[in-house]
Input
Amino acid sequence: MVKVDFNSENAINCICGRCPVQMKSKCSDEKWSKAEKELKNKKTPKAKEVPALYCSAGTAACKDLSMNEMCICGDCPIFMDNALERGKPVAYYCRDGKAK
Output
């Protein structure tokens, strides 16, 4: 079983914010603005308040994501550090849920 910790270090290293799937999401932009403030203050925001670490937290709260865009999970340091290619799903955690 694969498990990724939801913590501020992983949130900072996560590349979900650069993913084409959520690049045009107004909801994600708003959530990132709030989450960045928390992270700068060395706090870990609640999972559903951060448009990232879906491999840990599960599906996205934002519903305006573009699932027809290319997922970049395989390029993420969190993906590599946690050997997520061994789990399910192996991509689109924002849509399909956290790594198992």
